[in-house]
Write the structure tokens for this entry.
Amino acid sequence: MSTILITGGHSGIGLTAARELAARGTDLVLAGRSAQRMQPVKDALTAEYAVSVTLLLLDTSSLISVRGAATEVAKLCEAGEIDSLDGLVCNAGGRFDGEVTYSPEGYETTFATNYLGNFLLVDLLLPYLGEAARVVFTASGTHDRDSRDGRMVGAAVEPDAVALANDGKDGRKALSAGKRYATSKLCTVMYAYELDRRLRGAGSTVVSIAFDPGSVPTTGFLRDMPKAVQWFAATSLFSWLTKRIGGVVSDVGFSGASLAELASSPEYGDRSGEYFQANDGTLSSVRSAHLTYDRRRAKKLWEDSARLVARAADDEPARVR
């Protein structure tokens, strides 16, 4: 029986994906910040689908937490309590409105949560992935500053890991919440591609995929926005207007099911290095932003990210070089 680790699998599209995977007989490792919130999901999935569900405490904004979670996975695998992972779904993330805040390591929260924590998590868990495992990253169409979604949220800026990690420090004006979010997703897509190139270079058969779930306003994405904004975003009028102006729209059910498909369906077992998008009931491989194909920038992003992670723990990450 296969085992897939999914972050943020207790809510939103992650919960739908977890249910879809469990319905296919997949054992799960649910990773998240709150055992209290994850426990009811575990109970429901084990009762309905008779699969094994393991809870893992993980806060991707904290590199200390990421390291602790990876250590726990290693112990579980070595003890035979879970099999090697057939999938790692990096789905958890968020947009953080209001004044800029920082992670325990002193890195800007959006960048740390949506990108840097996943960078470290994947690196630490690579030894515990099966030969044909998949790593799927929940990205966002907002990463493309030339797209309608990117312009609505805030155009992404240069994917400079050091600058993004230290955004708003030393008296400098911080980026807007929208720009911080979009740029973290730009980094995610670039990382997914760079990971694919390095895996192929190392002779690995592990697959790396980036996924845009589309605009799904009923998830926690807008939880820090005013209640009126949250209410309007959940209406059919908002979806109609978004589609009308060229935005990418989806819903929790379809995007969650699509995420499960990418993580487990044989159809996507050889689609490494691609970017998939859920748009109005269709899942398809599409081109991401032009900037995401810049290998020089992607290499620098990787190397700078490795240094940021190493600086936080005085060691050297990035096993796939």
